[in-house]
Amino acid sequence: MLHEFVSSNRDELVRRCRSKGNARHSPPFTPAGLDHGVPLVLEQLVWSLRCEEETPSSARTPATAEVSRTAALHGKELVGQGYTVGQVVHDYGDIGQAITELATERNAAVTVEEFDTLNRFLDSAIADAVGPYAVDRDQTRDEQRRLLDTAVQAFAALKVGDIGLEGAAGQLLEDSLRKLRALIDRSPPP
Fold it and tell me: Taking Cα atoms as reference points, which of 63, 66, 72 lies closest to residue 129?
């Protein structure tokens, strides 16, 4: 059973995921992220595999709902810490690769159905984890558009009238441009 294999090899799987993450040339995950995120995903995977074994159907199980909820929260947490979508996807991909490689090395008795469940689990977790990135990106774009529109309107007012840069329109233009720069600077990379 895959859930027994994952449970009994948890520490080795965490070690392998850490090694895979460190081998990438992109900005690394913090040790806290690996020590917290990977064990939680493995724990939920074990639960999902057990639920699937007990209720083999396409119905949404409590484990599936919990995986979705925690993956979304984890994604939101990572957005706040400045991680990229790519890092999140790689983190979950590392888990799948580590399990597959270790199972192959140890000739573990894992069925095709269990690997299908593993892939479905990881696909759903990835989708739920990257969801907050889209929301954050959309909110950032809306704020950028609003600030840019304000700056353009202030500039237009400056061009039309005898308004100096030291007046309210000049101050509005400067303030909008400063806020726009700050928003762009704190936005996560694409």
Answer: 72
164, 146, 171, 37: which is closest to 91 by C-alpha? 37
Rounded CA-CA distance 12/170 in Å is: 61
Please give the share of the chain, as a percent, with pLDDT higher than 90.
14
Q: What is the CA radius of gyration of the chain?
A: 23
User: With b meaning 16 or more CB within 10 Å and e meaning fewer, what string describes 65-93?
Assistant: eebbebbbebbbebbeeebbbebbebbbe
How far is C-alpha 137 from the geometric centre of its chain's CA atoms? 12
What is the pTM for the complete model shown? Answer: 0.67
Which ranges constitute the DSSP H helices of 28-111? 31-54, 62-80, 85-105
Using the 8-state DSSP alphabet, how is residue 138 labeled? H
